[in-house]
Amino acid sequence: MSKHIVIDARIRRASTGRPVARLLEHLQTLDTKTRYTVLVEPDDPWQPQQDNFTPLACPYPIFSFNPMQQLSFAQFLRKLKPDLVHFTMSGQQPLLYFGAQITMTHDLTMYRYVRKGRLPLPLHWLRMLGYRLLMWSAHRKARRIIVPTDFIAADVAKFHSFTEGKITRTYEASEPPLKAEAAQPQGVSRPFLLYVGSAFPHKNLEGLAAAFQELAEKHNDLTLVLTGKREQHSLALEKSLKESPVRERILFTGFVSDEELKWLYENAEVYVFPSFSEGFGLPGLEAMVHGCPVASSNATCLPEVYGDAAVYFDPTDPEAMAAQITQVMQDVTLRKQLIENGYKQAKKYSWRHMSEHTHHIYQEVLEQ
């Protein structure tokens, strides 16, 4: 009888869900014998290409401290009678499910760069205590913990010392260059600096805006283009920059089409990634595959992933950020070398290899 693996893919459509989506894509060509049940959100239209994969709507939120939801989700999993459950984000698993399981921990950012938002401080700390409990439980019960970089492997082992012997690093990868025909977004003109992604606090866009203010004094026609979904964090950032002397030269585009995104990557002076904390750093690789030079924070895993295909700066120092951006803009030889190195660096990573490695982990755990 074939083994039965459950993959919790409820984050598939989220910004952190691309590894899950690519894993499901490649697993279907790697394994046509094992029986897979793929848990998806109730409104997720995902459908498999192979008969041994079955989607199953999962009505439970990704993170929940509700005791009844915790109990119900654990029972939901037990009824499936899996030989192994792959939780694709630590904290997804119910506290009272004790079957064989592996988990992916992308990073520990939320424990270091989270704001209380509208919650009163006591409730904020209570929520963070709940997250820590879920993470501790996930790591304690997991047979294997998959992380995307060596930096995160060391970080998790330090955070929970009992995990060290069961952590496996599996690199993620970039998407190939966008195939759409490039189209210039309305209101954007060259020259410009580019950032693509969310405006969460750890992304350090306030620091980027401070660096841009220095650059704008010397480059009268330079603009900063911030592309990403308009949500509470980007709206808060826009509000905080209201009194900035360079506010009119900072463009919040919101969501852009593939055609517009391709044009932005291909025409930006520099792609700037000022983040305080990352698990892998996909945006910089995506810029590289489009021939865009990258200036990156030197924090966490980013030097490990980008290698010699980026210049680096201290994300807490806007002057240092501005200096590195200026060097890329003005040094033609450096710019050409970064673009060439970027193409090479992105090719080192493969979603296929990530999926093969994950499948190998499944087999190892099932044989234990």
Describe this structure in words.
- The chain is of the alpha/beta class.
- The chain has two domains: 4-173 and 350-366, 3-Layer(aba) Sandwich (Rossmann fold); 192-346, Rossmann fold (3-Layer(aba) Sandwich).
- It has helices at residues 18-30, 67-80, 121-141, 150-159, 205-218, 232-240, 258-267, 282-289, 302-306, 318-330, 332-346, 351-366, and strands at residues 4-8, 35-40, 53-57, 84-87, 101-104, 144-147, 167-169, 192-196, 223-227, 250-254, 270-273, 294-297, 310-313.
- The strands form two sheets. Strands 3-2-1-4-5-6-7 form a seven-stranded parallel β-sheet, sandwiched between helices. A six-stranded parallel β-sheet has the order 10-9-8-11-12-13, sandwiched between helices.
- Helix 3 links the parallel strand 5 and strand 6.
- The chain is globular.
- 40% of the residues are buried.
Summarize the entry for a quick read.
The protein is an alpha/beta fold. Helix content is about 40%, strand content about 15%.
Spell out the key features of this protein.
368 residues, 12 helices, single chain, Rossmann fold, alpha/beta, 7-stranded parallel β-sheet, 2 domains, 40% helix, 6-stranded parallel β-sheet
| Total beta strand runs | 13
> Residue ranges: pLDDT <50 for 5 or more in a row?
none
**Sheet with most strands:** 7 strands, parallel
The side-by-side strand order for the widest beta sheet comes to: 3-2-1-4-5-6-7
Number of DSSP helices?
A: 12
What's the alpha carbon Rg, rounded to whole Å? 22 Å
Helix/strand/pairing category = alpha/beta
CATH class group of the largest domain:
Alpha Beta
Enter the CATH topology name of the largest domain: Rossmann fold
What is the name of the CATH superfamily of the largest domain? Glycogen Phosphorylase B
As a percent range, the share of strand residues is 15-25%
Distance between termini? 17 Å
Q: From the coordinates shown, what is the CATH architecture of the largest domain? A: 3-Layer(aba) Sandwich
Determine the mean pLDDT.
94
Helix share, percent: 40-55%
Tell me the count of domains.
2
Q: Encode the helix/strand succession as letters.
A: EHEEHEEHEHEEHEHEHEHEHEHHH
Outline? globular
